[in-house]
Amino acid sequence: MSHADREAFGVYVHWPFCLSKCPYCDFNSHVRHAPVDEARFVRAFAREIETTAARVPGRQVSSIFLGGGTPSLMQPQTVGAVLDAIAKHWTVARDVEVTLEANPTSVEATRFRGYRAAGVNRVSLGVQALDDASLKALGRLHTAREALDAVAIARAAFDRYSFDLIYARPDQTPRMWADELKQAISEAAEHLSLYQLTIEEGTPFFGLHAAGKLQTPDEATARALYDVTQEVCAREGLPAYEISNHARAGAECKHNLVYWRGEEYAGIGPGAHGRLDIDGVRHATATERRPEAWLLNVEERGHGVVSDDSLNSEERADEFLLMGLRLAEGIDPKRYAKLSGRQLDPHRIAMLREEGAIAVDADGRLRVTKSGFPVLDAVVADLAA
Q1: 315 CB-contact burial (10 Å; exposed 0-12 / middle 13-18 / buried 19+)
Q2: For 165, what's the count of Cα atoms within 13 Å in the CB-facing half-sphere?
Q3: Residue 331 DSSP class
Q4: Going by DSSP bridges, is the β-strand pair 191-196/245-247 parallel, antiparallel, or unpaired?
Q5: What percent of the chain has pLDDT over 90?
Q6: pLDDT digits (tens, 9 = 90+) for 15-61
């Protein structure tokens, strides 16, 4: 059995540009007022793909994710050229999932058919809210109506699509959120990513929050909003398969599962992270974040990698635990033991089971329970200790 049959292999491609910077965002995104030289970036993407494929040859690509930034600012032929480069240097699975993140504006929606023709078969729309006041507060450039129109275009162009919403927004009540969520599910069909608004250091929201100009819900309300999220989604047939991701059975995002199951993926483009297995050692890679600096690096030496760390067995096992316990399916403790060279502590498992934070299935899989998920970080810390 070849490496390709056994494990999923994902390729993440980062398009770092946005039309404007959202005040809550701490991702690697950049606003440029001059037009971006897409042809030059495509050549660099292709070059970095080639260099990476030389390090991990013979992989079969099971998923591709074009993230950002705002990938829907790319011309469809740019996307097509990136996908061609991937197919040239690796084998691409027949049932490959190719996701593109898009802003739900009418301008970008006009490109959806072009992306479909280029090979994209799933879109993820950054809707973020379904009411105009919240969208404005979140610095989004679209209205709720425009977002829903874009969702309708996505539905016509793609078999699979998903959208993101941000909750625990200022002044949001559980009742309002339940209504918004029901509306979202009626539009979303198969997959939703639902994130609590977090105030990240270095963003405009951080300053506003510190100055008392931005009130986020208190802990009890945030918890009630989380509970509403779980209840409404489960009732409507989109249970959480990961702490912030909900899907109908079989509609999970394959690419996200690569991350959470601790499988291998290549990170291409400015500020992209990767996990590559080379000669039995797992490498954690990261590329230069500044787009122009990344471009020059790739043109000069074939890649933009600025850090490439070999993970030891302990680090590898901790990462497997940290990512895997985010999934409703949980982890196989035998895989943890194989990675780390030691068993998870049975006493800790017994204690966490008694508290109702984790469950152990008949086949030995370890899962965080519904009541354990809101305190996931503490559960993981306890198990990893």
Answers
A1: middle
A2: 28
A3: B
A4: antiparallel
A5: 82
A6: 999 988 888 888 889 998 888 999 999 999 999 999 999 999 999 99
Q: How far is 227 from 370, CA to CA, in rounded Å?
A: 9
Q: Is 56 left (phi over 0), alpha (psi -120 to 50) or beta?
A: beta
Rg (alpha carbons) of the chain, rounded to whole number: 21
Domains of the chain: 9-258 (3.20.20.70), 325-384 (no CATH)
Nearest to 95 by CA among 160, 175, 164, 183: 160
If DSSP states are collapsed to H, E and C, what string results for 220-288?
HHHHHHHHHHHHHHHHCCCCEEECCEEECCCCCCHHHHHHHCCCEEEEECCCCEEEEEECCEEEEEEEC
Residue 81: HSE in the Cβ half-sphere, 13 Å Cα cutoff: 15
With beta carbons less than 8 A apart as the criterion, state whether 117 and 158 touch. no
Condensed to tens digits (0 to 9), the pLDDT of residues 175-224 reads: 999 999 999 999 977 999 999 988 899 988 889 888 888 888 888 999 99
Token code pair at residue 220:
């009890």
Sheet strands (E) in 326-382: 358-360, 366-368
